[in-house]
Amino acid sequence: MNTSEKNPTLVFIPCFSGAPWSAEQLAPYGDAPKRTLRLPEGVDDIERYADHVESAIADLDDYVLVGDSFGANIALALATRRPPGLRALVLSGGFAANPVDSKPWKALMQAIGKARGPFYRQLTLRAHAHRLTSPFDGEGQVPWSEARSRELFLVNTPAASFGARLRAALTADYVDVLGRVQVPTLILTPSHDVLIGEGASTTMLAGIPDAREVTLPRTGHMFRFSHPVTYAAAVKDFLAALPTTRQGTHA
Question: What is the pTM of this model?
């Protein structure tokens, strides 16, 4: 990236919890212009989440979308609109369509997504946190655990929002419009992920014209939380290799 030019703002889009990226996760990006946001509550459509992000960054004319997991699907949805300020796209642990390969697990998720009260706290969140874990969560710069994943959702995610986001994730399908993404795209993949099907990154890599994949060894789905320095290093390497001149606006 040409350092004599204004650096694009890095826009960090939250995961399924809806919580903005934390200072700990943003710190490895140093002095780069940064912005994050909280997802709206009770929204069950990815396009409406993309509307929310688009409105929140309407003042930016040069930016990179960095979306993690559910946030990656939101970033992808916005990128297919070809917004003129978009410089590049980072999708980590993301998907273009329903990410759940297992039919029994999909049926179970639909059922537990309707839980409220203690059933939500004790059944839904424990089951979801278990699916988020990997053998490598404790090895990162910020040792992570199943209990910490559950706490993340307890603090940030009302039951109604969990169910709404689940419906949005299970009905999203951008496979046929991946070709509309016309900016350099990094697909950042953990080496161990039981939540997102193995074909998710392959589908995006095949459909997005200027996409490349980097798999981070010994990481899991929560690698943004457990390995923030490793994660940021991969993003910064990608940004450093971007063209020194911006592409024109998209039709």
Answer: 0.92
How does pLDDT run across 37-55, given as a tens digit for each residue? Answer: 999 999 999 999 999 999 9
Q: Please give the distance of CA 44 from its chain centroid, rounded to a whole number.
A: 16
The residue among 156 and 123 whose pLDDT is bigger is 156
Rounded CA-CA distance 28/30 in Å is 5
- What sign for the dihedral angle of Cα 114, 115, 117, 120? negative
Please give the pLDDT value at position 246: 58
| Tokens read off for 140 | 């990162």
Minimum mean pLDDT range among 101-110, 121-130, 137-146, 150-159 = 101-110
Q: Which residue range is the domain that position 58 belongs to?
A: 9-240
Phi, psi torsion values for 220, nearest 5 degrees = -120, -175
Distance of CA 221 to the CA centre of its chain: 10
Look at residue 45 and tell me if it is in a domain. Answer: yes
Cα(50)–Cα(219) distance, integer angstroms: 28
Domain count across the chain:
1
Q: What are phi and psi of 129, to 5 degrees?
A: -60, -35
CA distance 206 to 212: 10
Domain containing 113 — which CATH number?
3.40.50.1820
What's the CA gap between 52 and 165, in Å, rounded? 14
Quote the Cα angle for 70-73-78, to 5°: 130
